[in-house]
Amino acid sequence: KEGYGADCSSLAELMMAQKTGITGEEIMFSSNDTPVEDFLLAKKLKAIINLDDISHIAFLEKSAGLPALICFRYNPGKLKKGNHIIGHPEEAKYGFTREQLFEGYKICRDKGVRRFGIHTMVASNELDPYYFVETAEILFNLIVELSQKLKIKFEFVNIGGGVGIPYRPEQKSIDVNVMSRGIRKKYNDIIVANGLAPLKLFTECGRYITGPYGYLVSRVRHIKNTYKKFAGLDSCMANLMRPALYGAYHHITVLGKERKSHNILYDVTGSLCENNDKFAIDRKLPKLEQGDILVIHDAGAHGFAMGFNYNGKLRSAELLLRANGKVVQIRRAETIKDYFATLDFNGLKDFNA
Prior knowledge:
The chain is an alpha/beta fold. It has two domains: about 200 residues, Alpha-Beta Barrel (TIM Barrel), CATH 3.20.20; about 120 residues, Lyase, Ornithine Decarboxylase, Chain A, domain 1 (Beta Barrel). Helices cover about 30% and strands about 20% of the residues. It contains ten helices and 15 strands. Strands 1-2-3-4-5-6-7 form a seven-stranded parallel β-sheet, with helices on one face. Strands 10-13-8-9-11-12 form a six-stranded mixed β-sheet. The chain has a two-stranded antiparallel sheet with strand order 14-15. Helix 5 runs parallel beside helix 6. About 30% of the residues are buried.
């Protein structure tokens, strides 16, 4: 009802959006350290190009030409606190400084660009609705200053992503109604009051939309007892990297043992040659046995998409459960043949050590 689109950051993601029928300004292309071919396709698709650095203005102009509509990513620095995943904005590699924003919009204005947007992203998996209200307020005030000083018109503001989900059972979902009402009030107090309405509002809610609805289903391969108890699975951090990368919590259900006592501490591990290849550390679970099926929750975002092939591990299949109960395979599992497909074995025959 409110409209949707695609947030893309690479050539492959632009192509994925195109294949699903999402084109034009339904695509927000936000990337950093961007190669020429990515800009060329984004321009061809008429996507909204969101530049990450002031030097990209000249780079884009030379490689693809400046579009009619352009957007810049703002890094508020110390003005805005990040959270535990994003860290301090002033240390992040992303975005324009405040001074660079004014300079960048002026450059584009003077080169004939007449349509503008602004974007930021300063949080990840945030559950406090007021965090996003404050972010919107910062951007709204900045739009007023930019509009008045540079005499330019903004068409939209993108407050970015970061809307979180409750990974832990004791956590509560973010109250999106509180967030929406708060942003609406700031919009009226700042944008409407300064005669800058209408202004489209975008947000990037990928995790919020997909995260809770994906599961990694795995089977216990081995039980190991040394100084601790370990449950080794037939999956690893190549299938779900968040616990190892961020120390993130993902709830685990043991199928058929949901009502049994969860009184045994396990480290739930994969088989990579990395000690941080663990889905859970000191997690209380029912007694596990070889062959038990474990369901790792909230893997619908940053799951398969962050997969990799370290140690020669292969990525799993993806199955889609339809509303009518039918299960459809939407991606097959990788094979050893896939893994070796890019190796030039003929070339290696002539290699002399």
